[in-house]
Amino acid sequence: MSDEQDMASGGARPTGKRGRADAVTTVPRPKVRKKAAAEGAASRRGRNPFSLILQFLREVVAEMKKVIWPTKQEWFTYTVVVLVFIVALIGLTTGLDIGFGKAVSVVFG
């Protein structure tokens, strides 16, 4: 659609630039009232702490049911990968420690 057709149909495309007189203005958004933090705390203040703990535990159980647990094969693979990575880092740290120790003994005799 060309600009002439677009303008003739009553619609104008926004330019993306602000402050131009011929730019399309947008409709202002309605203001949304944000909930104050004090209101949320006030509604929880009067509740029984044991019911809050019970609600928390129910939510934890509900979330745990959503978790996709690894199979035994995946668990074994992940464990081996982590152990190999740890051994590699220990070897790297030990090698650097021995190398820096020898370098210091050579420099400072």
TrEMBL record:
It comes from the Bacteria. Its main location: membrane. Gene3D superfamilies: Preprotein translocase secy subunit (1.20.5.1030). The lineage of its organism: Bacteria, Bacillati, Actinomycetota, Actinomycetes, Mycobacteriales. PROSITE patterns: SECE_SEC61G. It comes from Tomitella cavernea. Essential subunit of the Sec protein translocation channel SecYEG. Clamps together the 2 halves of SecY. May contact the channel plug during translocation. It holds the Pfam family SecE. It is found in: Cell membrane; Membrane. The gene is secE. This is Protein translocase subunit SecE. The keyword Transport applies. Keywords: Cell membrane, Membrane, Protein transport, Translocation, Transmembrane, Transmembrane helix, Transport. The chain crosses the membrane at residues 75-96. It is a single-pass membrane protein. The keyword Amino-acid biosynthesis does not apply.
